[in-house]
Write a structure and sequence with these properties.
3 domains; 355 residues; mainly alpha
Length: 355
């Protein structure tokens, strides 16, 4: 208060109150500076003042970025990636908000959305869960420098694709796939073990033949999967019949933690594979041919295939067969779709190279 009165005395403005200054700042700014502003400051002038401030901030920020780029090039890469990442995340948030409002206004469920909107919601939810701690950490003043350090040392573990450079995206996806691919042989062994509990000799032989061929390095045909579909709706491979060990293995295939009680493992596996099934249904309507190369690669990757070393045509071929399998299955047979992430991915790259 004293400081405000002191400032006003310098301009001969005795008796003015700080509350008046807060409510009518432009009047007192005019008196302090001698600028002939009207007490009734127009919207246009407020807009002009805001534009001037924004322009000034942009110039200062540009100068700061040039300083970093010139003197600290490695830090500048992290700095620019950080803010670019937040910008992309904000754009995703705006897009997701539009989709959510559309769902509310039209009474739509997730499974009724078009493919791209469905995929946007699925990916955004996963991104937010992973990046939320980093976002909260960056809120306090100067805490963003701590985030920069974390970005530098632990980019894969703590950040999402928005904060990765192009080279990092491919490198990290390779790492993630190699981790889940380590359990593919265990998933196949689980199928062979489950075959011993099949009472029907014909179905038992077909499941053993399918699993053994995959174990030996052969890529199965879709028709071979359809031959054993009955086993994946009841005993021993239906979602309600899977043993705990197999569910832990399949959780890792789905990038889910296996360290959960059995009931939670089953519930999460069901939700995630049904999410993919709904995506398949929407993709069947859209058409695989309508996807861009990046969308093709991402769709294959989500379904268990390492698409980093495949051409767009190979991705399209694999995804087309996947959708053909998925659209013929019932919800009760979703376990086959879950196991197909292993069966159709384990030897696909090898089979393409041998042709």
């Amino acid at each position: 208060m004293a400081l405000a009165r002191g400032c006003f005395r310098l301009q001969g403005l005795r008796g003015c109150r700080l509350s008046a200054f807060l409510h009518y700042p432009t009047v007192y700014v005019a008196q302090l500076t001698g600028h002939p502003l009207s007490p009734f400051f127009t919207t246009a002038k407020r807009s002009s003042l805001s534009s001037a401030i924004i322009s000034k901030v942009k110039r200062l920020n540009a100068n700061y970025e040039r300083f970093l780029e010139r003197n600290f090039p490695r830090f500048y890469v992290i700095y620019s990636t950080f803010f670019k990442g937040f910008h992309l995340l904000f754009l995703d948030f705006k897009e997701v908000s539009v989709i959510k409002h559309k769902m509310a206004d039209q009474g739509l469920k997730y499974s009724q959305l078009p493919y791209r909107e469905m995929e946007k919601l699925r990916q955004f939810r996963r991104d937010v869960i992973k990046v939320l701690p980093v976002v909260l950490l960056s809120i306090p003043p100067f805490a963003n420098y701590i985030v920069f350090m974390l970005m530098y040392f632990y980019p894969r573990q703590l950040l999402i694709r928005h904060f990765w450079a192009k080279e990092q995206q491919q490198e990290f996806m390779e790492i993630y796939h190699s981790v889940r691919a380590q359990v593919y042989p265990d998933a196949v062994k689980g199928l062979i073990k489950a075959a011993s509990r099949v009472p029907d000799k014909q179905l038992k032989g077909q499941l053993l033949h399918l699993s053994s061929k995959v174990k030996e390095g052969f890529h199965p045909e879709i028709s071979q999967l359809h031959m054993v579909v009955k086993l994946f709706s009841g005993t021993p491979l239906g979602m309600r019949r899977l043993d705990t060990r197999q569910m832990k293995i399949l959780s890792q295939v789905m990038f889910l933690t296996p360290h959960m009680p059995t009931s939670i493992l089953r519930h999460r596996l069901w939700n995630h594979i049904m999410e993919i099934r709904h995506l398949d249904q929407a993709l069947n309507i859209l058409g695989v041919h309508d996807l861009s190369e990046d969308e093709l690669r991402n769709a294959c990757y989500v379904r268990g295939l390492n698409s980093m070393h495949l051409t767009a045509a190979q991705c399209k071929e694999w995804l087309t067969k996947w959708v053909q399998l998925s659209k013929k299955l019932k919800d009760s047979e979703a376990s086959l779709l879950l196991h197909s992430m292993v069966l159709l991915s384990t030897n696909y790259l090898h089979s393409r190279k041998s042709k």
